[in-house]
Design a protein that fits this description.
Shape: globular
Order of helices and strands: EHHHHHEHHHHH
Oligomer: single chain
Largest sheet: 2 strands, antiparallel
CATH superfamily: DhaL domain
Mean pLDDT: 92
Strand content: under 5%
Helix content: 55-70%
Structural class: mainly alpha
Number of domains: 1
CATH topology: Serine Threonine Protein Phosphatase 5, Tetratricopeptide repeat
CATH architecture: Alpha Horseshoe
CATH class: Mainly Alpha
Strand order of the largest sheet: 1-2
Number of helices: 10
């Protein structure tokens, strides 16, 4: 796929929501190791709400914004805030009336989303959070020649980032309280982000 249009984006969200729904129990199991065990429920709720909102969208910019607002309104704690602010930030990076996005435009929009998210959510690579997958994924998008290549790069980088969390000590959230005991487990937020990409 050279460029991203609204119909392709709707299909991508449908597949991502399906993948997360299928892995809900596994994500809860990962979260139970160091957290409260509800990440699968939270990410499924936020992503399915975003997917449903996007299906009735008439254009890319407003569709992504509506998806972000729906995710944020789903009330699943930090997961809703993270994905809501990310998607609404991505929407801010899309030009009014855009019917499709090139790889370069999409990479720029994702960077705008990351910048928006980081303005409200603490964390960085190495903190054993979603950022360990998300930041490398967005960085990997730069220089892609097609949207297909962009998402292939992002998926590979997100997967590698999620796997790296096994050796990290948590610095935020409930897992932070476990200190060294958090080492040896995968961060569920990073894992779900890799699944989405």
């Amino acid at each position: 796929m050279q460029n991203l249009n609204l119909e392709s984006l709707k299909k991508m969200f449908a597949l991502a929501a399906s993948t997360i729904s299928e892995n809900e129990a596994e994500l809860c199991r990962l979260d139970a190791a160091c957290g409260d065990g509800d990440h699968g429920v939270a990410i499924k709720g936020a992503l399915c709400a975003a997917h449903e909102a996007l299906q009735s969208a008439a254009d890319l910019k407003n569709g992504i914004c509506d998806a972000g607002f729906a995710a944020m309104s789903n009330s699943n704690g930090s997961t809703s805030s993270i994905y809501g602010s990310l998607l609404m930030g991505v929407s801010d990076g899309v030009k009014d009336g855009a019917e499709s996005l090139s790889a370069e435009e999409l990479a720029s929009a994702f960077q705008a989303g990351l910048d928006s998210m980081r303005a409200t959510v603490k964390g960085d690579v190495g903190d054993k959070t979603v950022f360990d997958a998300l930041i490398p994924a967005i960085e990997a998008m730069r220089g892609a020649n097609s949207v297909s290549e962009l998402f292939e790069r992002a998926a590979a980088a997100a997967k590698k980032g999620a796997e790296s969390t096994r050796n990290l000590r948590a610095r935020f959230g409930r897992a932070h309280n476990l200190a060294e005991k958090s080492v040896g487990t995968l961060d569920p937020g990073a894992v779900s982000n890799a699944m989405i990409f």
